[in-house]
Amino acid sequence: MIRVLIADDEQIIRDGLVSSIDWEGLGMELCAAARNGREALQMAREQSPDLCLVDIMMPQLNGLAFVEKLREVRPDTVIIIITGYDEFEYAQRAIKLGTLDYLLKPINEKELNDSLVRAAELIRRRQRENFSIDGMKENLQLLYPQALKLLIRTCLDGEGDPERREAFERTYGTELGTRLELLMFPRADLILSKRDGIYYTEAGLIDRILAVCGEYGKDCGDLLYADVDPDAVLVVLRAEEGAQEGERLRRKLSEETGCELVCCSGTAEGGPESLGELRAALRDRIRENERYSPVVRRVKDYIDAHFTDSSLSLHRIAGEFRLSEGHISRNFKSEMKLSYTKYIEKKRMELAARMLLDDSRIVEVAEKVGYTSQHYFCTAFKKNMGCAPSDYKKRVRHEE
Description:
Blueprint: E1 2-7, H1 11-20, E2 28-34, H2 37-47, E3 51-54, H3 63-73, E4 78-83, H4 88-96, E5 101-104, H5 109-156, H6 162-172, E6 180-186, E7 193-195, E8 198-200, H7 202-219, E9 223-228, E10 232-238, H8 245-257, E11 264-268, H9 275-289, H10 294-306, H11 314-321, H12 325-336, H13 340-356, H14 362-368, H15 374-385, H16 389-399
Parallel strand pairs: 1-2, 1-3, 3-4, 4-5
Antiparallel strand pairs: 6-10, 6-11, 7-8, 9-10
């Protein structure tokens, strides 16, 4: 039913409108009758009328001022002016306020009835349009997960299109970000594992990973994608500056699956469209790692993710993988052709060399790559790079 509010300071007019019109026959119902403009505004806020019949000359707030204020809270409410003032200025202002009709008192019943019929047609047409728009919006929201998955999948396949991504963002009122993190869990490393007496096969472990990602995504709006490739489980997250969502998710997966999953990861700085290039680079890294045993791959990837932590030790690594320190040390050195300590030192020196080129202070570089002592860092740097950090900076600048 169309909800109607009557606003007129004359009791006889209000009563006449209530009794003389077949409201039910028009598909309408009276929701309120006000004696002045201020009361009418309060009732409109409470009752949300679709149609208002309004007198102009009312106390406290005149009819046109009421319409102006009503437009602020209910811009689509249809207005019919009923007044005893046949003045051009009033009529002109009423037209500017978007009123449907301007009827003069004494009220002609046929004119009023015709006006109400037009109002009903207008209101119902708007309701149908709004219903259709709301339905489209609802359908779009229902399609959001599939649309997002398709967009990210296309980008991972190297077919990302900025125009397609921008259209997606406009449609759903969201931004995917320009910095995304890609996690790849190689399927070759999803070997049998046990958790609380339950054994997971590769398929079972994949299902568990995807289930945990699904739950994680509900709590974290930065998880954009999680699916299975022929050679890896792929996960994409927003990675704004300073965010650690990828590391948090890795820890969550380790807790839920009961094993330290091998994860190859990287950051796409150019937004979704750069995911394809990053995926190809990570795939090459995974293939290179396939020459190592699963245990060594796991240890190597763990070191790659944590080598900047000054507390990283063989004891900690052994605890993470539930293996003996001797077993890890022997196998790592045998396959990598250098000890785990030398490998950690190598990773730290590579990062330190890059940071020194950015004019970072030596004490800051030492701390950020995992050393608590600047002196020890400088000694290790000189042993590996052939010169002190300060001389390295000068040498590289001279060569440039």
